[in-house]
Amino acid sequence: MARDERNTDEQRDRRLTRAADRLDIPRELRRTLVRRRAYDADAFGRLSERIARFLGTGQFLVYMTATVLFWVTWNIVGPESLRFDEYPFIFLTLALSLQASYAAPLILLAQNRQEARDRVQYERDRDVDARTRADMEFLAREVAALRMSVGEVATRDFLRSELKTLLHDLEAPTDGKRPEYKK
Q1: Of the candidates 108, 101, 116, which has an alpha carbon nearest to the alpha carbon of residue 49?
Q2: What distance in Å separates the CA atoms of residue 140 and residue 157, rounded to the nearest whole number?
Q3: Residue 45: partners with Cβ closer than 8 Å, 6 or more residues away
Q4: Over its length of 183 residues, how does the chain's per-residue pLDDT go in tens digits?
Q5: What is the C-alpha separation between 56 and 49, in angstroms, rounded?
Q6: Which of 11, 110, 127, 143 could join 52 in a cystine, given CB atoms 3.0 to 4.6 angstroms apart?
Q7: Which residues contact 25 (CB under 8 A, 6 or more apart)?
Q8: What is the 3-state secondary structure (H, E, C) of the chain?
Q9: Following CA atoms 113, 117, 122, 124 in sequence, which dihedral angle do they give, to the nearest 10 degrees?
Q10: Using an 8 Å Cβ cutoff, are 55 and 103 in contact?
């Protein structure tokens, strides 16, 4: 334990000496007697996404409808001594308003987190698109170079015609003269 604290202190001292000469880095806050509890900053965001995802399901709508129907039925038909919210259903209205007041910010938070993920995905897609476009341009240049190279290579038909001409010249009767070759 003492060794870990010593390593942490040494690391902090190294950071401070590196950052001491820089004006663009804020100084480290003073140590407190009570250590702050480490927490996951995204835990609440993940929880809000799960709640928002559940609020958008048919299952939630069925549960909410069943709850409201039971509430209204109980407070109209139930025994008078056990009714807890009479006709204008003020308590039900308050409960639904409270639920809506919490649901709206949770849904907005989940949408903001989704927007951030979408932005990162969009940047990745743009990078992949740029690399793909560069690869396609490179391949197009390579194919064009191959076509130009193939244009300079003798084709099969050209070689056959030349060989036929040579064969014809070789088979031609010679009258002591040497056959002339076309250049």
Answers
A1: 108
A2: 27
A3: 109, 110, 113
A4: 455 555 666 776 666 555 555 666 666 666 667 777 777 878 888 988 999 999 989 999 999 999 999 999 999 999 999 999 988 999 999 999 999 999 999 999 999 999 999 999 999 999 999 999 999 999 999 999 988 887 777 778 888 998 999 998 888 766 666 656 555
A5: 11
A6: 110
A7: 19
A8: CHHHHHHHHHHHHHHHHHHHCCCCCCCCCCCCCCCCCCCCCCHHHHHHHHHHHHHCCHHHHHHHHHHHHHHHHHHHHCCHHHCCCCCCCHHHHHHHHHHHHHHHHHHHHHHHHHHHHHHHHHHHHHHHHHHHHHHHHHHHHHHHHHHHHHHCCCCHHHHHHHHHHHHHHHHCCCCCCCCCCCC
A9: 150
A10: yes
CA distance 89 to 100: 17
Per the structure block, which two tokens stand in for 1? 């334990």
pTM score: 0.52
**Residue 34, token pair as written in the block:** 């009570």
Residue 102 tokens read as 């919490």
